[in-house]
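Now for our specimen.

. . .
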Amino acid sequence: MGFLSKLFGNSSEKENEKMTNVKLAVIYYSMGGTNYQLARWAEEGAKEAGAEVKVLKVPELAPQSAIEGNPVWKATVEKTKDVPEVKLDDLEWADAIIFSVPTRFGNMPSQMKQFLDTTGGLWFNGKLVNKVVSAMSSAQNAHGGQEATILSLYTTMYHWGAIVAAPGYTDPVTFGAGGNPYGTSVTVGQDGKMIEDVQAAVKHQAKRTVTVAEWVKKANQ
């Protein structure tokens, strides 16, 4: 067995095994459409693995005037108008959760933080314990806070008692997407397009997340 085989194992074979009854919520915030696209790729990957998936956006906090003054932002809002806003019930429903957000000075956007701050009741009643979670991010610079943003999300998850399913280096696609072991992250150019090719990495991360959720769910049955 070669080094890569030892490192990655048979992850592709495991991902091809269909699972049953795993419910995934993909929760995102997106101004320019990047994290919406990451969320959709995560949805595809999880469905390929047999999971039931909801793609959900967090409520917008910015004033309408700010959105109207930014053509790209306005177009994204229009494109995603039919995506449901996340509710606390969605967290209780889910076995696994994937978050996708752009960075704001190395942290998550206020829109996502505000939603997470409303989860205290679920946390207090133990409703978030053993949820399997993972996260993705984007920034306009390769070192513009992508990793820190993901880690900021995980800090909240540790308080929940959730189980973080980071991609690590469990598949070679991680290297092709920039090599972030904490979660898939992507650099967005001035033209609004993604620089790295991260689609395969996102789908692998989603499959890994729901696979771990299946293990946890079976262990608790």
